[in-house]
Amino acid sequence: MAAAVGRDTLPEHWSYGVCRDGRVFFINDQLGCTTWLHPRTGEPVNSGHMIRSDLPRGWEEGFTEEGASFFIE
């Protein structure tokens, strides 16, 4: 899993969002376009969390760097 994503690691005019499946997308706020690749590294990033439809409302599944899953309320 890639390093944590934060505003301090993004270039100026960039922000990010997280999809329900845990994939992180990046937004160039100046140009109004998006990408799956981190604007500094050029690599995709996963948040390590995934919202699943089979879990109770408010729960999501997370994964450790070793790949073990855990649940978060």
Q: Which percent range fits the helix content? A: under 10%
Following the backbone from N to C, one meets helices and strands in this order, namely EEEEEE
The biggest sheet amounts to: 3 strands, antiparallel
Counting helices, strands and paired strands, the structural category is: mainly beta
Report the portion of residues in β strands: 25-35%
DSSP summary, beta strand count: 6
How many H/I helices?
0
- Rg, rounded, reads 14 Å
Low-confidence stretches: none
How are the strands of the biggest sheet laid out side by side? 1-2-3
Q: N- to C-terminal separation?
A: 22 Å
Principal-axis shape equals: elongated
- Give the rounded overall mean pLDDT: 78
Topology, pairings included?
Layout: E1 14-18, E2 24-28, E3 33-35, E4 49-50, E5 60-63, E6 69-72
Antiparallel strand pairs: 1-2, 2-3, 4-5, 5-6
Describe the structure.
With about 70 residues, the protein is mostly beta strands. It contains no helices and six strands. The strands form two sheets. A three-stranded antiparallel sheet has the order 1-2-3, with no helix packed on it. The chain has a three-stranded antiparallel sheet with strand order 4-5-6, with no helix packed on it. A hairpin with a 5-residue loop joins strand 1 and strand 2 (about 25-30). The chain starts with 13 loop residues before the first strand and ends with a strand. The mean pLDDT is about 80.
